[in-house]
Specification:
Layout (H helix, E strand, L loop, with lengths): L4 E10 L3 E2 L2 E2 H11 L6 E4 L4 E2 L2 E2 L3 E2 L2 E2 L3 E8 L1 H15 L4 E8 L1
Antiparallel strand pairs: 1-9, 1-10, 2-3, 4-9, 5-6, 7-8
């Protein structure tokens, strides 16, 4: 099996984060699509914590404002081009990482 070097962009935010009048994850997905990236996945976490405290709230088994992870795999130059805009949207409310992966 042949592997290829690609890059993975990961954005960690909370579900209820808002930017430009929309949920932050929706703003980021719209940006990624507009720039022609190959695809993205939004993962929902059960719980977590960070500098803004815990990332969940339970009401009869339903989690509210849980952590979200947006994951994108593409070529490094394409992802790097997006980084400033994504960092501006996320601000201090999340974490943005970029690392090499084998596909």
């Amino acid at each position: 099996m042949r592997t290829q070097k690609m890059w993975c962009l990961i954005v960690r935010i909370k579900k209820n984060d808002v930017c430009r009048g929309k949920r932050t994850f929706e703003v980021i997905l719209d940006m990624l699509k507009k720039h022609g990236l190959s695809g993205a996945t939004v993962w929902t976490g059960m719980a977590g914590f960070g500098k803004r405290g815990r990332s969940n709230f339970q009401i009869e088994g339903i989690s509210i404002n849980m952590p979200l992870v947006i994951e994108v795999v593409d070529e490094k130059p394409r992802l790097q081009k997006m980084l400033p805009e994504i960092k501006q949207v996320v601000g201090d409310n999340g974490l943005v990482t970029l690392h090499e992966v084998d596909v």
